[in-house]
Design goal:
about 800 residues; alpha+beta; OB fold (Dihydrolipoamide Acetyltransferase, E2P); eight-stranded mixed β-sheet; 26 helices; about 15% strand
């Protein structure tokens, strides 16, 4: 391929990436790679200019070994991270508090509920000791809702040295299969702990202005000036959109707006990108040329401004990549060297990965490089196939049609090149994006340019800045209206399951294979080969066993279990909790459904009406088709249950009330034996005995062939006594969903002995205020030999069975 000729930097970047990937899987230590590197360098020095092929192979091997060495270094804590790093500090115990001192290193993010900030830690104070520490910590400060004194949010500024009282904790890792791994995300940015503060009085400022002169006096004041200028003249979503365009600041963007941008396929617009860097190069070069500044100082000035803008935006991967490429292109132009795009992007990748090999696993890094490579490589193919014919033709309006075609094929090239990455990240493929980008991108570019001009003119004239902002406000409003309209179009996008590594490899192989077709005969051959490869992949991944799959989702301090039957039926038992910060239906259950191709719920079982079991139900009722609801018939009057009942009536969903002794056998090879509630605990009007909703829970045994699973809801000791007295002979099951999150009010000794499960699953939240599960309950199950799984420690618990054997899936 012509594209791969004379591009050594690009080839070497591929070798470096290969080495890093090997180094993350195989630990080779530091000594062996270092020795190999030394030996290879000595051999290269001896055969230099003697044998080109051997020299190339040795150089490639050298770079791969160096990649392994660099990856190992970046993953060896003792080598890179000091002994007093926050990474090695233990988590704060449940009922304890510690004090953390540090310097705010980024602009704090305020909203009505909390303050988010990042600090450079200096010291940790406990009741007994003081430790001098280092490392970055992600901090969240929330209002104490139970305090009688209502305090306003403290004014915290970047560079402030502060003392915080709260809890030091590990960030949450991946909790459910396919979920976003927040802990890994933070570690990629060298943040290893989070700190939670409750009560604004627990954040005290000690001193101000503690950052370096560059950041304290130049970078952050400039950024604040830009953000304040935008907030001053532009309001609402328009301001959030412009902040994203100009500064990369996206914290103010609403969830509704983000969803619209994702559905319309224009999410890239609210992130600073290479286009910003191109504007800066063009603007600065043109301005200095008008002033007749010589080439050398003009180039150096442009490079300095590029570096400043990179720091100004917080150095996201796309801007770092574009800045390095811009500097290389400017330098090549200055010294009159020919510019090769692939070499430039290869050098940019090498510089970033040599500085920090972990960036290879950052989605922003991968997306940025994938987008720019595909926009050049794939677009060049489109240009040869279509655009050159259009350019050679003569017709009215050619300039406009050619411009629209350029945008269309550029968008298509970028979308084809990044589809596996964006689909993994957003779970969607947007079809309307091909049209949306043709319209929005030119206007967004104009808003970006006007936004820069608006901020720069504010330095000397507020009046002129306000006039420019008013014009920009019209542009921004029009764009947002059009984007929301595009997102609302029927079939604007499709939901898609995530790509695993084999799918990604297969996708890019087929894409490259098809895009490099030379003639019609070659086309037919390659299509056949691609179809065969797809067929082989489908056959190799097809589930011929058709097993029962039960997933106890980690939804925090609540309950939710998903049953997927061999005949593709979906049964959901409870749906987690809801509060002002979290809705398990929206945040956990729906994304899991999307990743697994689930679009309906055949049976929804609501064990009882506590919020930690039905919190996500209204979201699910609004967004999924539900075949029928099985419940105990409890009645409580709250705004939430009123909404739930209304939605069920409007959607005409059948409701089945079950009682002790009922059986459901509508599922193939499967029965549900309902053992509870009994009329003595829950009357016909839905009133629970002694107002204990837990003892009105639906409890049932699911039997699939020889496998038995007991779902207990939140039944307590009185209900368990009833079960012992009335169903003693059938209480033994293979798997038990432990009642009431492992609370001491349940799992009585007689019930545990009778049930004696091989596997006990406890659904509870990390660091929950109830201290579930109880140590006493844990010991009871250990003493009878049960294997215990906990969602707070293990994340989701996934179990597969053919009806005879049990497989607890190690999905991590």
């Amino acid at each position: 391929m012509k594209y791969l000729q004379n591009i050594p930097a690009f080839k070497f970047s591929v070798f470096l990436i290969t080495g890093i990937l090997i180094g993350t899987e195989i630990y080779a230590g530091l000594v062996l790679p270092a020795i190999l590197i030394t030996i290879i360098i000595l051999i290269i020095s001896l055969i230099y200019k003697k044998n080109g092929s051997v020299l190339f192979i040795l150089t490639a091997f050298l770079i791969i070994v160096f990649g392994i060495f660099k990856s190992n270094i970046d993953n060896i804590d003792n080598f890179v991270i000091s002994d007093n790093s926050v990474k090695y500090l233990p988590e704060t115990k449940p009922k304890a508090f510690v004090k953390l001192k540090g310097i705010i290193k980024e602009l704090p993010d305020y909203d009505s509920l909390k303050i988010r900030l990042q600090i450079k830690a200096e010291a940790l104070y406990t009741f007994k000791d003081t430790a001098i520490i280092e490392g970055d910590v992600d901090v969240t400060i929330r209002e104490n809702k139970y305090s009688k004194i209502k305090l306003s949010q403290p004014v915290l500024k970047v560079g402030d040295e502060i003392i915080l009282k709260g809890k030091l904790q590990e960030a949450s890792g991946i909790r459910n299969p396919g979920e976003f791994n927040y802990k890994k995300y933070l570690s990629l940015h060298n943040i290893y702990k989070i700190f939670s503060v409750t009560g604004y009085e627990n954040a005290k400022v000690i001193s101000s202005g503690n950052l370096s002169y560059l950041y304290q006096k130049i970078i952050f004041p400039c950024k604040l000036f830009a953000l304040n200028n935008i907030d001053r003249y532009i309001k609402g979503d328009g301001a959030s959109y412009l902040k994203g365009l100009v500064t990369g600041e996206r914290s103010d963007i609403s969830d509704e707006m983000k969803t619209a941008f994702i559905d319309a396929g224009v999410m890239h617009l609210i992130a600073v990108s290479g286009l910003n860097v191109a504007y800066i190069i063009l603007s600065v070069t043109l301005f200095l040329a008008i002033l007749r500044i010589p080439v050398f100082p003009r180039t150096i000035s442009t490079i300095i401004i590029l570096i400043f803008y990179c720091l100004f935006t917080g150095s996201p991967p796309s801007i770092v990549r574009a800045t390095i490429m811009g500097i290389l292109i400017l330098t090549a132009t200055l010294i009159e060297r020919r510019i090769n795009f692939y070499n430039v992007i290869g050098i940019a990748a090498i510089i970033i990965l040599v500085a920090d090999s972990k960036q290879l696993f950052d989605a922003g890094f991968v997306l940025s490089f994938a987008a720019v490579i595909s926009m050049v490589f794939i677009y060049n193919l489109f240009e040869k196939l279509f655009l050159h014919k259009l350019n050679d033709s003569e017709f009215k309006g050619k300039k406009y049609i050619l411009g629209a075609a350029l945008l269309f094929f550029t968008t298509l090239a970028a979308q084809l090149g990044t589809m596996p990455i964006t689909s993994n990240y957003f779970g969607k493929i947007s079809f309307v994006s091909l049209i949306a980008n043709v319209v929005v991108v030119p206007v967004a570019n104009l808003s970006l340019a006007v936004g820069f001009f608006q901020i720069l003119t504010a330095i000397f004239s507020d009046t002129l800045s306000s006039v420019i902002a008013e014009a920009n406000n019209l542009l921004l409003t029009g764009q947002l209206y059009f984007i929301k309209w595009c997102a609302s179009v029927k079939y604007a996008y499709i939901n898609i399951r995530s790509f695993d590594i084999m799918k990604i490899i297969l996708y890019y192989f087929i894409l490259t294979f098809l895009l490099t077709i030379k003639n019609k005969n070659d086309f037919i051959k390659r299509i056949i080969i691609c179809l065969l490869m797809i067929s082989m992949y489908i056959l190799s991944t097809f589930d011929f066993k058709k097993e029962l799959k039960v997933t106890f989702l980690d939804i925090g301090q609540g309950d939710c279990a998903l049953i997927q039957t061999p005949d593709d039926k979906t049964i959901l038992i409870d749906c987690g909790l809801m509060n002002e910060n979290y809705n398990s239906g929206k945040r956990t259950i729906a994304p899991y459904f999307l990743r697994n191709g689930i679009d309906k719920i055949d049976i929804l079982i609501l064990t009882h009406l506590h919020n930690d079991h039905i919190g996500g139900v209204n979201f699910l009722l609004n967004n999924y088709k539900i075949g029928k609801i099985i419940e105990s018939g409890q009645k409580i009057e709250t705004p939430f249950t009123y909404t739930m009942d209304s939605l069920i009536r409007i959607k005409k969903i059948p409701r089945e009330i079950v009682r002790s002794g009922d059986i459901t056998n509508e599922l193939k090879d499967m029965r549900m034996y309902f053992l509870f509630p009994d009329n003595r605990f829950l009357d016909k009007e839905g009133n629970t005995y002694e107002n204990n909703l837990n003892n009105g829970s639906v409890a049932f045994i699911l039997k699939y062939k020889e496998l038995e699973i007991f779902f207990t809801g939140d039944i307590e000791k009185e209900a368990e006594r009833f079960l012992n007295d009335n169903y003693s002979d059938i209480l033994k099951t293979d798997i038990l969903k432990v009642a009431h999150h492992g609370s001491i009010t349940s799992s009585t000794i007689p019930f545990v002995i009778k049930n004696k499960p091989d596997i006990a699953v406890i659904s509870c939240g990390m660091h929950n205020k109830f201290n579930h599960p109880s140590d006493i309950i844990l010991n009871r199950f250990k003493n009878i030999g049960s294997q215990i799984y906990r969602t707070d420690l293990d994340g989701a618990v996934v179990i597969k069975s053919d009806g005879y054997t049990i497989d607890v899936v190690d999905w991590k």
